[in-house]
Amino acid sequence: MASGGLQLLGFVLAFLGWIGIIISTAMPQWKMASYAGDNIVTAQALYEGLWMSCAMQSTGQIQCKVYDSLLKLESSLQATRALMVAAILLGLVAVFVSVIGMKCMKCMEDDQVKKMRMAVFGGVIFITAGLAALVATSWYGNRVARAFYDPFTPVNTRFEFGSALFIGWAAASLAMLGGSFLCCSCPRRETSYPPSRGYPKNAPSTGKDYV
């Protein structure tokens, strides 16, 4: 029962992490404009994400523009996109594989060893998805930090970390933690011992053996 509870907890955490990865990928707030200095801007907030850039005016109106061409984007942004999409697809596969291996499901009840191995395999895929998302968000954040501290970057074009990055880091951590819990349900090998040999019992004495 304890392993079943740990398995369920791992699946819930990993599933929440996968949902967070999807949300982080879709959000445009991967980096937000830093209004450091004395520059005057007309927009209240400027955001840039993996798919579009947005500007929120002081009136509350939000205007977003999708990036025109994939070929015009930086190679680092394209790589970040690819890693996040790969993390989402891996998480989708991990969800189906882990569900089959859950003890509370009826699938593969006749072979518990294979069922537990499916759960472990799903956990490994969740960990891989979390690593992909972690690499993508950390790589993007490193680029934002380097550009911010670069003295040649104009003050009015400097950006800070957006909320999507923090969600991505938290989601990647949940996916890896949940996958690790699923891997803890790995079946242990049971050591088989040879059957003990019985010793012949002495026949009960009838009391007629003495003279």
From TrEMBL:
<protein>
    <recommendedName>
        <fullName>Claudin</fullName>
    </recommendedName>
</protein>
<feature type="transmembrane region" description="Helical">
    <location>
        <begin position="7"/>
        <end position="27"/>
    </location>
</feature>
<dbReference type="InterPro" id="IPR003548">
    <property type="entry name" value="Claudin1"/>
</dbReference>
<feature type="region of interest" description="Disordered">
    <location>
        <begin position="191"/>
        <end position="211"/>
    </location>
</feature>
<dbReference type="GO" id="GO:0005923">
    <property type="term" value="C:bicellular tight junction"/>
</dbReference>
<feature type="transmembrane region" description="Helical">
    <location>
        <begin position="161"/>
        <end position="184"/>
    </location>
</feature>
<comment type="similarity">
    <text>Belongs to the claudin family.</text>
</comment>
<dbReference type="GO" id="GO:0005886">
    <property type="term" value="C:plasma membrane"/>
</dbReference>
<dbReference type="InterPro" id="IPR017974">
    <property type="entry name" value="Claudin_CS"/>
</dbReference>
<feature type="transmembrane region" description="Helical">
    <location>
        <begin position="120"/>
        <end position="141"/>
    </location>
</feature>
<dbReference type="GO" id="GO:0005198">
    <property type="term" value="F:structural molecule activity"/>
</dbReference>
<comment type="function">
    <text>Claudins function as major constituents of the tight junction complexes that regulate the permeability of epithelia.</text>
</comment>
<keyword id="KW-1133">Transmembrane helix</keyword>
<keyword id="KW-0965">Cell junction</keyword>
<keyword id="KW-1003">Cell membrane</keyword>
<keyword id="KW-0812">Transmembrane</keyword>
<dbReference type="InterPro" id="IPR006187">
    <property type="entry name" value="Claudin"/>
</dbReference>
<dbReference type="Pfam" id="PF00822">
    <property type="entry name" value="PMP22_Claudin"/>
</dbReference>
<feature type="transmembrane region" description="Helical">
    <location>
        <begin position="79"/>
        <end position="100"/>
    </location>
</feature>
<dbReference type="InterPro" id="IPR004031">
    <property type="entry name" value="PMP22/EMP/MP20/Claudin"/>
</dbReference>
<keyword id="KW-0796">Tight junction</keyword>
<keyword id="KW-0472">Membrane</keyword>
